[in-house]
Amino acid sequence: MDTDKKDNQADKDESQNIVKSTPRDNLVVTQHTTTIKGRSIRYTATTGTIVLKEEAQKGEKDGESEGEKAKAEVFFVAYSKDNVKDKSKRPISFCFNGGPGSSSVWLHLGVLGPKRAKTRDLETVPPPYTLVENEYSLLDQTDLVFIDPISTGFSRVVPGEKAKDFHGFKKDIESVGEFIRLYCTRYGRWTSPKFLVGESYGTTRAAGLASYLQERYGLYLNGLMLVSSVLDFQTLLFYPENDLTYIVYLPVYAATAWYHKKLPSHLQRKPLRKVLDEVEAFAFGDYTLALFKGSGLPQKDYQHMLKKLAEYTGLPEDYLDQSNLRVRIHRFCKALLRDEKRTVGRFDSRFKGVDRDSAGEYFEYDPSYPVVHAPYSAALNHYLREDLNYESDLPYEIISAKVRPWSYKEFENRYVSVSNTLREAMHQNPHLKVFVANGYYDLATPYSATEYTFNHLGLAPELQKNVTMAYYEAGHMMYVHLESLARMKQDLTTFIQSAMP
Prior knowledge:
Elements: H1 3-16, E1 26-36, E2 39-55, E3 68-81, E4 92-96, H2 105-112, E5 115-117, E6 131-133, E7 143-148, E8 156-157, H3 169-186, E9 194-200, H4 201-217, E10 223-229, H5 243-259, H6 265-268, H7 272-293, H8 299-313, H9 317-322, H10 329-335, E11 343-344, E12 352-353, H11 370-386, H12 419-428, E13 433-439, H13 447-455, E14 467-472, H14 482-499
Parallel strand pairs: 4-7, 4-9, 9-10, 10-13, 13-14
Antiparallel strand pairs: 1-2, 2-3, 3-7, 3-8, 5-6, 11-12
């Protein structure tokens, strides 16, 4: 029996053992009060699952239509401000993280929600972990709905369905889009100003949704808030034939080296932004031309490249020579502080880690991840049950490996990209505005890669003003840095107000 037949038989056997019951929405409503900028705000939290259904096809039973067929239960937490007389004037924002495979916990308890996980920038907080009031919550500006895509958080397929059917670019957008349509319908939000907030792969999802919601449902958005954006995967993938990645990563390498004081003194004395101006000019000028020439680069120019790259990255010339002028991200994370027997983080390169040895090519773990993983996980699991009164014995999947392999079959033989999808959505809806938050120390989605993508979006000149870029001296999750969180709140507030009708 081949593998596909085995899988089909296993699915059939499993479905036969399931006690059939009709999945139902499971919602809990609670009332709360918070204080933002000295103002008391009363709000309602709705926590639970909504069942996604699809129209059953004819012939599924005795040649007749079965009406609607349950497919999955999507978990969400929604916050709506109380005593709003006209919901058509109250914005609503649908929020999600990325992965693929991440729940919405990071945006929820990191920056947007009325509570946030208590952490310390650059320090590991000892357990037990706590929640604090989030004085920087965006709830004073917009209602918030945090969505966990299928197989993340408490979101699951219903018995008899296959989870892997939802683990892919297209189906993910369709299922999240269906949830947004259903929520707007049930809670009377079709005429409200609407926003999407996505982080990391969530920005890929957001760009895809902007187009999908318009075309499928006629649901037009006022704005997208993209945190640590990736719209074109060519800018992130280190392949020998893809020189673009090495070019757009160079500025964040320089920012990291500057932060850890590995640059020459004449650069180290300069403010970070001044350093980056110089490095960007080199990266998109001489360095681009040198890589374009390949083995045709004259030896004297090659030696000049070695010297400049060493100057801007803090790496030894012989290492750069061995790397053929091209340094992959994991090599950089391992090599920059090798003399200190330390590594630097991928999500946030300000963080340092320690491996068993310092001679390897890859770090053992990303030192910027454990700092947030435990506090956010503990805080979320406590918060849902104790504050929001939602009970479930399922494991809340903070980061789910079950979604892999993730299907990108729509992009076979080419890089995954939604940049043109966003361009089309903005041209069809010229009122759609985009805010992009970038961390200077983000090695996962470098700010210069994002700039490259938007510079090549192909927007009409009159629509280019619809895009706003903001920069923070932190990493991928810039909100773990309290000063960046405070400024991010101001920037998001300004953006929402600018995108209102």
